[in-house]
Fold this protein.
Amino acid sequence: MMKTIHSYWAYIVLIVLMYAVIKAILGCTQKKQFTDKDLRIGLFALIVSHIQLLIGLVWYFISPWCKVLKADASAAKSNRVTALLAVENPTVMILAVVMITIGWSQHKKKTEDAAKFKMFAVFYGIGLLLMLSRIPWNNWLS
């Protein structure tokens, strides 16, 4: 059940993050005013990303991948699929959420609208790219 929740929540995270990044890029390039709506979109992206991380951590520690890694780490890392699910996915997803969190923190320090949009575009964009790079697409789409 946790795997299912984790998988479906990932769709929400990706959609919200894509929307936040696109809005930030458009806001920056079109020199728009940073509004309360933009703030809420960024905050919502931050919240859903953190929820996904928590769901993922719970799933990870009850999953077979954690047990495989604990049993024989070198063998787990030598198998491409196991390495992705047991090592790369959790590590990169944590880094992605860290980048999103940094983007949220940095945007609050900026006073200019373009700078706020830029913080979201850069850090949320990096977080989104990191997430997309380590989603186990074969497992997720099947």
